[in-house]
Amino acid sequence: MTVTAPAGFDAAGVAVGLKSTGKPDVALVVNRGPLKVGAAVFTSNRAKANPIIWSQQAIKDGVVEAIVLNSGGANCFTGSFGFQTAHQTAEKAATILGVSPGDVLVCSTGLIGTGDEVFRAKVLQGVEASAAALSPEGGQDAAHAIMTTDSVAKTSVVAGEGWTIGAMAKGAGMLAPGLATMLVVITTDAVLDSATADAHLRAATRVSFDRLDSDGCMSTNDQVTLMASGASGVTPDAVAFRSALIDVCDDLARQLQGDAEGASHDITIRVEHALTEDDAVEVGRSIARNNLFKAAIFGNDPNWGRVLAAIGTTQAEFDPYDVDVWMNGVRVCTAGGPDRPREDVDLTPRATDLLVDLRVGDASATIRTNDLTHDYVHENSAYSS
Amino acid sequence: MTVTAPAGFDAAGVAVGLKSTGKPDVALVVNRGPLKVGAAVFTSNRAKANPIIWSQQAIKDGVVEAIVLNSGGANCFTGSFGFQTAHQTAEKAATILGVSPGDVLVCSTGLIGTGDEVFRAKVLQGVEASAAALSPEGGQDAAHAIMTTDSVAKTSVVAGEGWTIGAMAKGAGMLAPGLATMLVVITTDAVLDSATADAHLRAATRVSFDRLDSDGCMSTNDQVTLMASGASGVTPDAVAFRSALIDVCDDLARQLQGDAEGASHDITIRVEHALTEDDAVEVGRSIARNNLFKAAIFGNDPNWGRVLAAIGTTQAEFDPYDVDVWMNGVRVCTAGGPDRPREDVDLTPRATDLLVDLRVGDASATIRTNDLTHDYVHENSAYSS
């Protein structure tokens, strides 16, 4: 049910030929209320796609009636024509739904530079077709329509005390969210005001999508949107709601990691006993972005020297010669020297645990990444062809 | 002739079994004077190998009598035993040469974590054997003894007005120098004091090795050392000497790039019309470290969207929607939109030129990198086996 699991939401996913495969490529999610609360976080990449530029304006009043999403073209670096396309997309949906265009968000994903007249015509056609197909059971269709190189649709639902959160996500590459991630739509029937929705969303994305760094490449089109319909009539306990929202975001982040292009290992990097959480994140991210470490994991090689070489490039507080490194439960390095033999580490499972103990404080963080594989290179050298 | 091309230097390269292949693995370069001037720059990685820690102390007085280099083991994260090994290496060479141990530098390269009793015994044996083999014609042997995954020895010689500069380098992976690069030894018979040598060396490495970023991974063992013997009796013109030194460093940087592990393209990223040189370097480096761009080049795909997505993550001064991107002479993007069709770009040659015109100022910089290939992944997943 995904985004239509909570009460008050209709959705649809239709195929209009943006994808050469003929698979669904335009999704529409509509909030039927009574509340029309929205919050969103966007890529921190300065190179922003036209739908991002549109949506950043549209979200300012905290009101969202609907969101249109398309795959098969990013509408990024497509000039003023591309911005007009995003604008017309919102207007088209608003006219059909009888709402204000400024309350319709737009998301696009696909190849950068794609957004010509043909693209525009298909997207507008998709708005019409998806509006005609709207249904309280349309969540699964919508989740399929936003897929690009994803091998599976990513969805998540969590039920609270009288309220529900539902969500869908797409993303398989260019996965290094800056304040958001790929395209994510989260819905809830809880009663929230827009400031509370915004605070919950930022708190949840900070410790979930922001801690996913599959390939160090930040997208131009990332957007995470939360819509609240209030249809349950229940104002949730703030702590319980935030916790449930984090669960949904973390679940989607793991699904994104598990479906990352070409990956053969899902690597969970746990940094413990850092002085600050920021230090822990910086150290974890330096490992997640180290190609030599990622290639070693692909080769089932517990090359802990590459971990230390990576974290040595950070400004975090620690002594490189007093760090412990564990791989899949085996301490391979202690106090700046070798510990248990490499042969003791079994890296054949897809799930890979790296633990780095900085031994200076009480803060910790977990960063999720993937290995660097032949298939990653292959898929990303052939993407636009 | 490499490091023995200038007058006043002897060198040797010998095999002592540090490499499983039986190839030469210990090099010694000795300055016979009359001057014993030395300058060095080191990796800015906080995770530093033991020979780096030793050499950073030894260089402080600006006097260098000799340098010992070994391949087949990095002596990094090998604890206090490893530091003692570096110390004993310098003492052994000093005793044989009749100089102070504090004037002998040590460099190591190979697998991090390698540096046990067997390693120490072989290195010390290598010092003895190479000292016995010292010769004014030993430069080529030394250049071969420092190779690891290098497919060719890297050397460079430039002649000035009455003086000569010679050099050798090794490096094929973990190539993202922070203030230095892999192992480089540069010799000259010019008359220089140590402050002048240091200034020339820093100026030259800043625009050569520091602009090479093959895989974004900074080594723990990088060191570039300049030794001046004064044997020519000629005090060089400062501008001419610095220019020649830059030529030598740039020549070696290109050789390192051309021999980078698994690479199939040598990519020259030229950033023009930046507001500052720092901005140009930041923008160039963001592209050089973008795996999606590098994989696209491997696939001969002129995917300029990935260039814009990469530079959008920087803090440099420019408008992402007013940038021109050229690939091998074809302008594929102008003012935030597509220009000439992708099909016009021929990316089949190994030499690849990317030009990014930021259109805001007069500063520029060139960053050299490589593509991301199947072979890179293969070589780096199997390195330690």
Automatic annotation (TrEMBL), chains A, B:
The record marks A180, T181 as: Cleavage. The active site is at T181 (nucleophile). It is an enzyme of class 2 (transferase). Pfam families: ArgJ. It catalyses: L-glutamate + acetyl-CoA = N-acetyl-L-glutamate + CoA + H(+); N(2)-acetyl-L-ornithine + L-glutamate = N-acetyl-L-glutamate + L-ornithine. Catalyzes two activities which are involved in the cyclic version of arginine biosynthesis: the synthesis of N-acetylglutamate from glutamate and acetyl-CoA as the acetyl donor, and of ornithine by transacetylation between N(2)-acetylornithine and glutamate. This is Arginine biosynthesis bifunctional protein ArgJ. It comes from Microbacterium caowuchunii.
